[in-house]
Design goal:
single chain, nine-stranded mixed β-sheet, globular
Length: 459
């Protein structure tokens, strides 16, 4: 057989071995944009004479909605998508190229973890991949799409990515059901261990998709907002002076996002985890920005889960050079025995370090800023450039219930009457403005105009 015929035969063998993973990849990328790299770097040391032809890892380059990106696929057709030393080196090589090009990385993951029988070498390989992924954090966006089961050390690839997509039957867990059942002696339900519902609860699943084509749309929406890919400022057809009269009567996360952000330019991140704190990115008057909205009728109480979400998001905005607008409605730490038994105070201390970011920060107190809630998110001390308060916002040392009870004990009187007076007088946002703690007390319906004006001076 001549060299060209041999090459053709080998290529056909490789394509056949990776046919399923390529079909799934084709649902996300643009047309025939995929260019494979290192196709002859196989999962085992030798290719010829093996029972299993092909590769456990497919890498290359493609475009997604015209955004260039690098691609890493774990091919479950070969060795169950198992990780080998050769496969890991192939991944690292692709990630190094992505870092040099400042191009996003798309992972398609379906793997049973490290391949047994190759000694410690695959473990060394996984450590190199995780190190390379960590090097990319804050440098290029990493999108992980879980298209099947992802077990063992491969599950760490999901956790290391910036954006994660789960399909209906996905299961991501360090210990597979078989391993957990063997150790515990009890049946282990795959969905309970690491199914999509479980992953939503532990902050591993950012998005759930029913079709892989949805990933392409989501990726494009995110990249279009990030300054390094979509630009810091874009022209917008949305009126910068648009008012939202409904905010004068009621404000919550949904209405604030709709009122402030440009139409069709907001992507919520981490929607399934700590839902009382809404985080996301978008454009405001054409400017890229991140948003934190404390979404609770009577003010959000802080706990370990939402503090972790806040830590991650403020860090994310910092490394992506995104100004942060924080819509404040929080009472501070939850008072409970269960929370007191956790290292929550250390978590708050770590959060403070992340609040002191170098990117522009704007605070809008739209509900309550009480106690520690004000200290962390109402005060301008932690590198906040502008602080606004709605005219009906409440800012105080104590919530009205506590304030009224303290006065009732000290002076006596009617509880409801004292409570109302405390809310009207002691919690009035004007008091904070008089002392210079708040830059302006504003009519809620005009909040978009104030935020855009602030961004114009900061970006």
């Amino acid at each position: 057989m001549d060299k060209l015929s041999l090459l053709k035969a080998r290529n056909e063998e490789i394509l056949a071995a990776g046919s399923e993973i390529r079909k799934k990849l084709a649902e996300i990328i643009d047309g025939d944009s995929f260019v494979e790299s290192d196709s002859y770097s196989f999962s085992r040391n030798e290719f010829y004479g093996e029972d299993v032809p092909g590769e456990g890892v497919v890498t290359g380059f493609a475009t997604v909605n015209d955004f260039p990106c690098y691609v890493v696929c774990l091919n479950s057709q070969i060795l169950g998508g198992g990780l080998t030393d050769a496969g890991c080196k192939k991944i690292v090589k692709c990630l190094d190229k992505a870092l040099n090009a400042k191009a996003p990385v798309l992972y398609l993951l379906s793997s049973k973890g490290v391949v047994a029988g190759d000694g410690v070498s695959p473990l060394e390989g996984v450590s190199e991949v995780l190190s390379a992924m960590d090097e990319l954090k804050g440098e290029v966006p990493q999108f992980a799409v879980c298209i099947g089961d992802v077990f063992g050390q491969a599950s760490l690839f999901v956790a290391a990515a910036d954006y994660t997509y789960f399909t209906k039957d996905t299961c991501v867990a360090y210990g597979s059901p078989v391993v957990i059942a063997a150790k515990s002696g009890k049946y282990a339900d795959k969905a309970a261990i690491g199914g999509t519902a479980s992953a939503k609860g532990n902050d591993l699943a950012y998005f759930e998709v029913s079709e892989l084509s949805e990933v392409a749309t989501s990726m494009a929406n995110i990249l279009d907002i990030l300054p390094d890919y979509g630009g810091t400022e874009l022209e917008t057809m949305d009126d910068a002076n648009r008012a939202c009269p409904a905010l004068n009567d009621k404000a919550d996360a949904a209405s604030l996002i709709k009122a402030v952000f440009d139409e069709n330019y907001f992507v919520e991140l981490g929607a399934y985890f700590a839902k009382e704190v809404v985080t996301g990115i978008g454009r405001i008057g054409g400017y890229s920005a991140g948003a934190v909205v404390f979404d609770g009728k009577d003010g959000v109480e802080l706990n370990n889960a939402n503090i972790k979400k806040l830590q991650d998001f403020y860090w994310y905005c910092d490394v992506n050079n995104l100004p942060v607008v924080t819509f404040v409605n929080t009472l501070g730490l939850e008072n409970s025995l269960s929370l007191a038994a956790t290292p929550v105070l250390k978590e708050v201390s770590d959060l403070i370090s992340l609040l002191k970011t170098d990117v522009p920060r704007i605070n809008v107190i739209y509900g309550k800023a009480v106690g520690l809630g004000y200290t962390l998110f109402g005060s301008k001390t932690f590198n906040v450039d502008y602080a606004y308060a709605f005219a009906n916002a409440k800012i105080a040392l104590f919530d009205s219930n506590v304030g009224a009870e303290m006065e009732l004990v000290a002076k006596g009187g009617d509880y409801e009457e004292i409570k109302k007076r405390y809310e009207d007088d002691e919690m009035d946002a004007v008091n904070a403005a008089r002392k210079g703690y708040v830059d302006d007390v504003i009519e809620p319906q005009y909040v978009r105009q104030y935020v855009i004006s602030a961004l114009m001076t900061l970006v």
